[in-house]
Specification:
Layout (H helix, E strand, L loop, with lengths): L4 H11 L6 E8 L5 E6 L4 H4 L11 E5 L6 E3 L12 E6 L3 H6 L3 H11 L5 H4 L14
Parallel strand pairs: 1-5
Antiparallel strand pairs: 1-2, 3-4, 3-5
Length: about 140
């Protein structure tokens, strides 16, 4: 079992009957002052960005809880949850955002052209596929 310090701290609070009402998170990327801090669960992203000095670009997206396994949002009314790991602010034209927002048809075409029939995408349940791939077909 792997636990981070915040999880262990929350277990300690739970033993004392205290609910999780705050979350420790990092706000980084295209912000003036990247930092980590405690914030109340339920706080809208629009209220968290100013705590890191605000965005340094006008048009941006926010990766929630990481670039690889997290989600991408453009809605600053989304809120901090107890599972949010952090916010990564990137310009809307950044490669990682344009890649994540490609249409499904384009992603399927790229996947088909790059597939070497290894079948890892279907045989390893720990790898969540963003779209269904069946190289054996």
């Amino acid at each position: 079992m792997v636990n981070n310090v915040e999880t262990l701290y929350n277990v300690h609070l739970a033993e004392q009957g205290a609910p999780v009402t705050r979350k420790f998170l990092s706000v980084c990327g295209a912000v003036k002052e990247p930092k980590s801090f405690w914030a109340p669960v339920g706080t809208p992203f629009r209220d968290l960005l100013p705590l890191a000095g605000g965005a340094t670009v006008d048009d941006f997206g926010v990766f929630v809880s990481g670039i690889m396994m997290g989600t991408l949002t453009f809605d600053l009314d989304d809120v901090l949850t107890k599972t949010t790991g952090g916010l990564i602010v990137l310009p809307r034209d950044h490669y990682l955002i344009t890649r994540r927002t490609r249409p499904r048809v384009e992603m399927n075409r790229i996947g088909k052209s790059a597939c070497d029939q290894c079948s890892y995408c279907t045989s390893l349940p720990a790898i969540p596929a963003r779209y269904e791939v069946q190289p054996h077909k």
